[in-house]
Design goal:
615 residues, alpha/beta, 6-stranded parallel sheet, 22 helices
Length: 615
């Protein structure tokens, strides 16, 4: 059966065909779609597969470890930044090994479409000695995920499948097979072995030697499965990995080029013998890969071993950039340099904007219409102003997620946005560095559970003067409305124990204050009163994500602009950037279909020109 799948959906397909038992992860673009797609299949086919969004990536990896130690198959999903969180456990478990198949699916983001820094996860494979597979398209992804489970089970070490944005989000035809449910065939099997499953009593030298040997074993299995295919056609060679391979094939087919090619399915273990065979047949080499020159460096090492040094074009000579993602244009330019002939696509698509469209101002990133986060930041800004401070006098630290949009105009509330949970620790550090004014740390409820609890404990322990504002919208919204411990449902929609944030905070000796972000005057008073007090204070701005709320609550009212009163000052739009407010033909109006009746624009309007009406 053939399906049209994205690379992420192909991961789920491959895992289910491989008989995965447990899937855990933490949502992070560009990897977030794996678990929702898998859950849909599990529900429709009544498969006995467990899946969850874990509290963070380290926990997700440790859940998968226990499953694999017990002889069953586990898939763990995350984005590249999440691998930093899970890396300590990854490196430790690589040395101890697993029994059941354990696959870590991680997506890198060249070009930073998801707003984080560029990071090449292949270095974690080299650091941990864990084999890695690097798919080039959705069909390749499904094939390599299935193979990863087999390799992991046979070698008894985890295997990484590393994708990138343009593979994870690309759609392609995938040949699909039946889903396998091995749950009845595999019973729980975990026996006491203290040296084997602990660090303090482990024979760490033996574990390390064994891990290195397993890399050689994995390479033999890769060769048995015809990975890293070599095609010999001429004296010009191209070695490519990931999505760059797909671009190369399109160029070769379009221009009918004769090139010797080597597809790198795995940078680790490195296919040394096959690379030597490739080198011996060519006079010049072009290396195509996204992000860091990992393949290029390993290739040059092999060239030294083979005692054949020939010209190499790649990232180290700036044929391709180490910044951003590869595409058809920069790959064709690189191939042009290799062959000494310019390659031009005749049917290049031209997009011409008409003059009127070109003149329209570009819209910046903003919150959804009626988002409670917009109102909370407005409340923070208003409280700062009410206290007589300027916006550049009170530090407001930020965090990852929807809350990070608070850095953009017109709010520009946040001064920092680094990693999950960093807002609280940064605020604490600023005080240690000499900050004497009030300071505010902001983060979402999901981020609070992920990595915010620990720095809050640290701040309480040392009695920091700090106000923490938790934006409690009940969901992990930016990555696709995944549930978190505060939501009360799991990925299947089944009820779970809802973890009460105020109770957690009270356990630290703090009485949290809850505000409604749509009660503007009252919330501004509370915020202004709280931030100037000594010690650690926690304010919870509690209101469900609007896009989720409108799915189960019927919004019966909306706001409109009374043109008889409106002076066209534009403050409603300038101070909120709400997408429901439109300026067209010299007039301001509110799109009735987009308005969720939050009322912030009406609160801001100095002329009371914005009024509520029934829809």
């Amino acid at each position: 059966m053939r399906k049209l799948l994205t690379g992420n959906e192909a991961v789920a397909q491959g895992a289910l065909e491989a008989g995965v038992d447990v899937v855990s992860g933490y949502p992070g673009t560009p990897s977030s779609e794996v678990i929702p797609y898998l859950v849909d299949i599990v529900k429709k086919n009544n498969l006995k597969v467990y899946a969850e969004w874990s509290i963070n990536e380290k926990v997700a990896f440790e859940i998968g470890t226990a499953v694999a130690w017990a002889g069953k198959r586990a898939l763990i999903t995350m984005k590249m930044a999440g691998l930093n969180t899970a890396s300590d456990t990854l490196i430790n478990i690589a040395n101890k090994g697993v029994k059941g198949g354990m696959v870590l699916y991680v997506t890198d983001d060249p070009g930073t479409h998801a707003g984080c820094t560029e990071q090449d996860s292949r270095f974690y494979s080299l650091l941990s000695f864990v084999p890695i597979l690097d798919p080039s398209d959705p069909m390749d992804t499904k094939k390599l995920v299935k193979l990863a489970f087999e390799i992991s089970e046979e070698t008894q070490i985890p295997v990484i499948v590393r994708s990138t944005t343009n593979v994870a989000h690309t759609t392609g035809i995938v040949e699909c097979e039946e889903y396998h449910d091995y749950s009845s065939e595999k019973s729980f099997d975990f026996k006491k072995d203290i040296p084997g499953y602990t660090t303090v009593l482990a024979d760490r030298e033996s574990q390390r030697r064994m891990l290195i040997e397993k890399g050689s074993q994995a390479l033999k299995l890769f060769e048995k499965n015809n990975l890293n295919p070599l095609t010999k056609k001429g004296k010009l060679g191209v070695i490519a990995s990931g999505v760059s391979w797909a671009y190369l094939q399109e160029i070769i087919n379009y221009f009918n080029l004769d090139l010797t090619t080597l597809k790198i399915d795995s940078e680790n273990p490195w296919p040394e013998d096959k690379v030597i065979s490739f080198i011996e047949n060519v006079d010049k080499i072009l290396v195509l890969e996204e992000q860091e020159p990992v393949v290029e460096l390993l290739l040059k090492k092999t060239m030294v071993n083979a005692k054949k040094l020939i010209p190499v074009f790649g990232k180290e000579d700036n044929t391709l950039s180490r910044v951003g993602e590869n595409n058809l244009e920069n790959i064709s330019n690189a191939v042009s340099k290799l062959i000494g002939k310019e390659l031009k696509f005749k049917d290049k698509i031209q997009i011409n904007l008409n003059e009127e469209e070109a003149k329209k101002p570009k819209k910046g990133l903003t919150f959804c219409a009626g988002c409670p986060h917009r109102s909370t930041y407005y409340i923070i800004n208003s409280a700062i102003k009410k206290l007589g401070f300027k916006s550049n006098e009170i530090i407001v630290t930020g965090d990852i997620g929807c809350t990070s949009i608070g850095v953009f105009k017109p709010l520009e509330t946040l001064w920092t946005e680094v990693t999950m949970g960093a807002s609280i620790a940064l605020a604490y550090g600023f005080n240690l560095a000499g900050n004497t004014k009030p300071i505010i740390a902001t983060l979402g409820d999901s981020t609070f559970f992920h990595s915010g609890i620990q720095p809050l404990i640290n701040a309480v322990q040392y009695n920091c003067d700090l106000t923490v504002v938790i934006f409690d919208n009940h969901w992990t919204s930016m990555t696709g409305f995944q549930p978190n411990p505060n939501t009360g449902v799991d990925v299947f929609g089944r009820p779970t124990n809802k973890i009460n944030i105020p109770s957690l905070i009270r356990a630290l000796g703090i009485e949290p204050i809850t505000i409604n972000p749509f009660e503007f005057e009252k919330s501004i008073e509370i915020m202004a009163d709280t931030v100037t007090k000594k010690g650690v204070k926690v304010i919870i701005s509690k209101e469900e994500c609007t896009l989720q709320k409108i799915r189960h609550v019927n919004i019966t009212t909306y706001y409109f602009i009374d043109k008889e009163i409106c002076t066209k000052c534009g403050l409603c739009l300038k101070r909120t950037s709400c997408p429901a407010i439109v300026f067209d033909n010299g007039e301001y109006y509110i799109d009735k279909s987009a308005c969720t009746s939050c009322g912030l624009c009406a609160f801001i309007c100095p002329f009371n020109a914005i009024k509520k009406e029934e829809k």
